[in-house]
Amino acid sequence: MINLELPKKIEDTRALLRQFAEGGFRPLSRKYDLLEQKEMPQELYDLAKLLGGGRSRMESGDGAKAKADTRGENRNANNMSMVVSSAELCWGDVGLFLALPNVGLGNAAVSAVATEEQKEEWGELFASMAITEPGAGSDSAAIKTTAVLDGDEWVINGEKIFVTDGYRSKQVVVWASLDLKLGKAAIKSFLVPKGTPGMTVTRVEHKLGIRSSDTAQIVFENCRVPKANLLGNPEIAKTAEARKKAFGGVMQTFDNTRPMVAAQGLGVARAALDLTLELLREKGIELDFEKGYHQMSAVESDLYDLEAEYETARLLVLKAAWMADNKQPNSMNASMSKAKAGRMGNQVALKCVEICGQLGYSKAHLLEKFARDSKIIDIYEGTQQIQQLIVARQVLGKSSSELK
Q1: pLDDT tens per residue, range 66-115
Q2: Which of 122, 139, 282, 284 has its Cα between 20 and 30 A from that of 185?
Q3: 3-class SS letters over 332-394
Q4: How far apart are CA 59 and CA 189, in angstroms?
Q5: Residues contacting 148, CB < 8 A, separation 6+
């Protein structure tokens, strides 16, 4: 039976990270939102050290060496810890969380797919994830970047856009095709260290939100990496059924990362709600959950609805993480949690701005920043629409070719 009660170990970590987010991230939020500079916020190096260097605490996936807290047949381990930790840090600041040294979406891909030998050889990671291309957004199978084996090296050619931490990261996990004629079955991921000849960061984006985290365009021109830098199995499946399973293995990366991204939506929504309640309290408005419906003001009714939306998303995210920890297929649940929490975070933050009026819209408080930061969570790591499509395919038993 599923158990979403947080073990004491994870609850203790959550409480510590709330203090860290409040004392470490919040004082820097406005500063680096306004600066939007390319260089790493220097304070983050010290903050990352306080988190234990980032990798051991923030690594995700089945390969992570994390001890599990168990209750009977329930296992609440690394994935559960990851989503709870991500939510708390994003309560502080989503952009600064994404900019933390040694914390990157590519880390999750390495953890999920790389061999133990590869992890040991590559050591400390701060890896970004390069999937999106000018002609391939939510449809990851449509990517045109290629990787061709030449002796003991892969030669990568192509262009990637909207790479989170693409400028500051130390490595990039690049999705590329071994044979464009074979479609998604030939897509593999490669670890490319920064500074590799042929890899160039050509642009850093100016953005609506998460401005303290860089988003880059990267071009690969005859970029050579060792043969061993391919993540997972280098073989291309021969049969149609085997190819389908092979690409499914590549896509399992998202089953680990989507609940973590969904948790970012939880964090920013909770931040917006907490600040709204604080501002209302200063105006003499306190929520009383024992009131009858006919006794509520319009503001109270709105806030109750927002709390219910938040709790619904929170339970979906925890369930997706629990399933991963308990070795249960969670692809549909990961997409459900991302779809719900991504949209919820944005809707809650915007409604909180509306409720607080001038105080919500002004830069005197962080509410307007929470609203701006929240939008990207509904877009990256698979848009709202693609998540709903994935869920529909699972529910109806349809393949990607049957339901587009």
Answers
A1: 444 444 566 778 889 999 999 999 999 999 999 998 888 888 788 777 88
A2: 122
A3: HHHHHHHHHHHHHHHHHHHHHHHHHCHHHHCCCCCHHHHHHHHHHHCCCCCCHHHHHHHHHHH
A4: 18
A5: 154, 155, 157, 178
Q: Rg (Cα) of the chain, in Å, rounded? A: 21
Q: What is the pLDDT of residues 297-351, one digit of tens each?
A: 899 999 999 999 999 999 999 999 999 999 899 999 999 999 999 999 999 999 9
**Whole-angstrom Cα distance, residue 63 to residue 151?**
29
Give pLDDT, residue 322.
Answer: 94
What CA–CA distance (Å, rounded) separates 247 from 251? 6
- Which of 80, 94, 10 lies closest to 270 in space, CA to CA? 94
How big is the CA angle at 288 (ends 286 and 292), to the nearest 5 degrees? 135
**Secondary structure (3-state) at 311:** helix
Domain ranges (residues) in the chain:
8-111, 125-237, 242-396
Give the number of other Cβ atoms within 10 Å of residue 153's Cβ: 16
Centre a 10 Å sphere on the Cβ of residue 232 and count the other Cβ atoms it contains.
18
C-beta separation of 358 from 193 below 8 A: no
Pairing of the two strands 74-76 and 127-130? unpaired
* Class level of CATH domain 8-111: mainly alpha
Q: Are strands 127-130 and 171-177 parallel, antiparallel or unpaired?
A: parallel
Query: How many CB atoms lie under 10 A from the CB of residue 308?
Result: 10
Residue-level length of the chain: 404
Helices 26-35 and 367-377 pack at an angle, to 10 degrees, of 70
| Catalytic residue IDs | 381
Task: Say if CB 377 and CB 345 are below 8 A apart.
Answer: yes
Residue 390 has a pLDDT of 92
Contact status, residue 144 vs residue 158, Cβ threshold 8 Å: yes
pLDDT attached to residue 289 = 75
Residue range 125-237 forms a domain whose CATH class is mainly beta
Q: Which CATH architecture has domain 242-396?
A: Up-down Bundle (1.20)
Best CA proximity match to 98, nearest among 4, 12, 218, 207: 207
